[in-house]
Amino acid sequence: MKLDFYVLCGVAMLASKVWGASSPDISSCPALTPRTTPPKDITDLRPDDIKVLGALGDSIMAGYVMMGVTSSLDPKALEEFRGQSYAIGSDANAITLPNFMNHYQPIKKGSSVGTHFVTTCNIIGDSCSQSQYRPNQDYLNGALSGAMAFNLQVELGYVLSRMKTISGLDVQNDWKMITLQIGSNDQCASCNTSHSSKVTAEQYGANVEAAVQLIQSQSPKTIVNIIGAFNVSQVFPLSQQSGLKYCRMTNNDPSTIKNLKECSCHADADHKSMDDLAASYNQQLITIANKYKAQPGGTFAVVYRPANINIMSFPIDALSNYDCFHPSQKGHQWMAKIAWNMLFLPSNKQPGIYNFDANQQVMNSTQKRRTIHSFDHFPPP
Ligand SMILES: *[C@@H]1O[C@H](CO)[C@@H](O)[C@H](O)[C@H]1NC(C)=O
Ligand SMILES: *[C@@H]1O[C@H](CO)[C@@H](O)[C@H](O)[C@H]1NC(C)=O
Ligand SMILES: *[C@@H]1O[C@H](CO)[C@@H](O)[C@H](O)[C@H]1NC(C)=O
After folding, report:
1. What is the mean pLDDT of residues 139-163?
2. Which residues line ligand 3 (CB under 6 A)?
3. pLDDT score of 353
4. Alpha carbon of residue 168 to chain centroid
5. Which listed site, 33, 43, 190, 310, has its alpha carbon 20 to 30 Å from 230?
6. CA 364 / ligand 1 centre spacing (Å)
C-alpha cells in the first residue's frame, strides 16, 4: 500500500527517495481503464466519474492579477485570469485541477476560461453582485474578487442557476464537485472594527454552512470540496524582506507594496490575531465536514482539505509582482498540484504543512483511488 500511495506521475520510481527529483507532468500518468459499473455512491468516485466542476471563492480563485505587470499602468493589473485559476481554470495547456481531470476524461463542464476585467465586491457592506459575472467565461467559477464568506450566497445564486443552462450538463444525474476556498479577505477585515463582527469564526462557520445547505438543496450528487484557510499574513514578511526588488511600485520603496493597502491587518504587530482567526476558521470547516461527511449509499458530502500553506516558503515570484498579495501563475500552478493531490490523500496522510516545491509532483489517479479520503474509504492494501 505504501508503494501504491507514493507512486507519482513523471517520476522514475527507482526508489521512493527520488520522488522530488524529476519534472512533474500529468501527461505521463497512465489512463484509467473505464469503469464497467457506475460508482455505487459518493464514497466510490474516481476523478473520471466527476462530470462537472464548480468553484466558490475570492480573487485568488478568480485568478486576479496572476500574470503580473510590466509597469504600474499595465492593464493586466485589472484582469482576472479565470482560465488559469488553479482549481477551476481550463485554458488550453494551463496547469490546473480541471486540466488534470481532463487527462482522464475529455469533458469537464463548468470550468472557467479566458480573462476578464476585474470587478470587486466593495468590502464596505455586502455589494457583491451577480452583474459581475461573465457567464461565457466564468461558467461555474462563482468566485468574486473581494468576496468574504458572507458573500457565498450571491456566488451560489449565480452558480446554481448557471448550472441549469450549460448544455449537456445533467443537474440531476451528473456527479459534481464544487471547490470552495474563502477566508483571506475575512482575515484581512478582522482588524477593522467596522467589519470585525462580520468575520468572527462563528460567522464564518455559519456562512459556509449556509452555503453547504444551499448546495445540498439544489445540487444533487455533489462533493463540496473545501480547501482550508491559510495564514495570509505571511505575505507581509515575505515581501518586506530587505534587498528584494519586487512588487515595490515606487522607487523600490517597501512602503509602496500594494498588499499593505489590500489588507487592513498589515499594521498589526505580529499578525497573530489573523493567524489565530485562520486556525479557528479551519476548526469551523472541520465541524462542518464532519456534520456532512460522506455516508455509505449517500450522494452528497463535504470534504475538508487542510491547506496549511507556508507562504514563507514561497519564492517571491510565486506572488504577483503587482501586489505581493495574490499568487502569480507560478503560485497557482503549484496550488493546482497540491489541490489535485489533496483529492487522494486520506486525512491522516495529509502533509501537516505545505512548503512550496518547484518540482512538485502530481499523484496518479489509479483504479483504486477514490476522492473521498476518509480512512475507511482509502483503498485497502
Ligand atoms: C503512476 O505513473 C507512473 C508514470 O508517471 C507509472 O510508471 C506508474 O505505473 C503509475 N502507477 C499506477 C499505479 O498507475
Ligand atoms: C475600516 O473600515 C472603514 C469602513 O469600511 C474604512 O472607512 C476604513 O478605511 C477602514 N480602516 C482601515 C484601517 O482599513
Ligand atoms: C500559521 O500561523 C500560526 C501562528 O502564527 C503558526 O503557528 C503556524 O505554524 C502557521 N502555519 C504555517 C503553515 O506556517
Report:
1. 96
2. 231, 272, 275, 308, 310, 353
3. 94
4. 25
5. 43
6. 6
Strand partners, 173: none
Q: Which domains does the chain have, with CATH numbers?
A: 4-373 (3.40.50.1110)
Nearest ligand to the CA atom of 272: 3
Show the cell assigned to 60: 485568488
Q: How far apart are the first and last CA of the chain?
A: 4
Whose CA is closest to atom 4 on ligand 1? 9
For residue 260, give the ligand nearest its CA. Answer: 2
Cα angle 307, 121, 74 (rounded to 5 degrees) comes to: 85
pLDDT tens digits for range 181-231: 999 999 999 998 888 999 999 999 999 999 999 999 999 999 999 999 999
- Residues 164, 171: Cα–Cα separation, whole Å: 7
Q: What is the pTM of this model?
A: 0.91
d(CA 175, CA 85): 21
pLDDT average, residue stretch 354-377 = 73
* Mutational test site, ligand 1, from 2, 4, 9, 363, max ligand atoms within 8 Å of CB: 9
Q: What span, in angstroms and rounded, lies between the C-alpha atoms of 169 and 270?
A: 48
What cell was used for 209?
Answer: 454552512
Centre of ligand 2 from the C-alpha of residue 190, in Å: 11
The protein residue whose alpha carbon is closest to atom 13 in ligand 2 is 264
φ, ψ dihedrals at 373, nearest 5°? -105, 30
Distance 308 CA to ligand 3 centre (A): 8
